[in-house]
Design goal:
With 301 residues, the protein is of the alpha/beta class. Helix content is 34%, strand content 24%.
């Protein structure tokens, strides 16, 4: 296609800098789960932005953090592997940073090794003064020759259009990889599991969320009594401790009902169909070190 640009763009950053919020703002659809807790994204999520003269395929990645389990190691491996075969990297940092910390230094090292075109995205500009922002821009400008430096607020969608334009500038002319209606490669099963986990992340105590893992055990499309389509879904929330199971279920099952209700409402909006969602909670102590489960979070190269 003449004058048509396309390419694969990976989003790299530390935990909790707003990568998933940015991805959702760029695509205009909710495909990455968002929660104000670190390590929300565990796998590589693909989002596709279709524009008149371009198609941009974004890869959200797990946040860079200090690994403690097999799962943590896989998450970090996934993030860095994604940088090898892409056309452009979006390196997202927090505008409230005063210096280049360990996590950001590590990401910068990997970017330098990859020698990839990179745009520096400074997120959360709504939280800092202009002088602080200028200092941060100067600090990072000395580290790498970025294609562009774009300060944004992902949550407020501020400067998102400007960022997209800079991405388009950095990409080469190329083909359309997906049709115009496609905006993610996530399956309904994956979206369901991640949506339930997002609601748990938001509603549960700090010590519980990152010890949970959601598995959809049944996903079947059927008909309601008045012959309308409905998704019948059964899912299990696995946790690491018996005490956590009680917290997830809550008094009289109220917390689990709340998680299920919020997840169902989101899924109905995303799928455009009615959803009948049933959830259970089971204890699975060492799931973060179980090879079969951890394999699910590896990327295919």
């Amino acid at each position: 296609m003449e004058n048509f640009k396309s390419g694969f763009v990976t989003i790299l950053g530390r935990t909790n800098v707003g990568k998933s919020t940015l991805l959702n703002s760029l695509i205009g659809e909710k495909i990455a789960i968002m929660a104000n807790k670190p390590q929300t994204t565990r796998t590589q999520i693909k989002g596709i932005l279709n524009r008149e003269n371009s198609q941009i395929i974004f890869l959200d990645t797990p946040g860079i953090h200090k690994p403690k389990t097999k799962l943590s190691n896989i998450m970090i491996q996934t993030a860095f592997e994604s940088a090898k075969d892409v056309d452009l990297i979006l390196f997202i940092i927090d505008a409230t940073s005063k210096e280049i910390g360990k996590g950001d230094s590590l990401i910068l090292e990997k970017i330098k090794e990859a020698k990839k075109k990179t745009i520096l995205v400074i997120n959360k500009i709504d939280l800092v003064k202009k002088e602080e922002l200028l200092k941060l821009i100067e600090l990072y400008s000395k580290e790498y020759e970025f294609e562009a430096i774009v300060p944004i607020s992902a949550i407020n969608k501020e400067k998102i259009e400007e960022l997209i334009e800079e991405i388009e500038k950095a990409l080469d002319y190329g083909p359309k990889y997906y049709d115009d209606e496609t905006y993610t490669d996530q399956t309904i099963r994956m979206i369901t599991e991640e949506t339930i986990r997002e609601k748990a992340l938001k509603l549960l105590d700090d010590e519980v969320p990152h010890g949970i893992y959601v598995e959809v055990e049944k996903l079947k499309k059927g008909k309601t009594m008045d012959n309308k389509p409905i998704f019948n879904i059964e899912a299990t929330i696995f946790c690491q401790r018996e005490s956590h199971k009680g917290i997830i279920i809550g008094k009289n099952g109220n917390k689990l009902k709340q998680i299920g209700t919020y997840a169902r409402e989101d899924l109905e909006k995303m799928l455009g169909e009615k959803v009948n969602l049933r959830t259970w909670v089971k204890v699975r102590k060492d799931w973060q070190d179980e090879e079969l489960i951890v394999k699910k979070f590896k990327i295919d190269n």
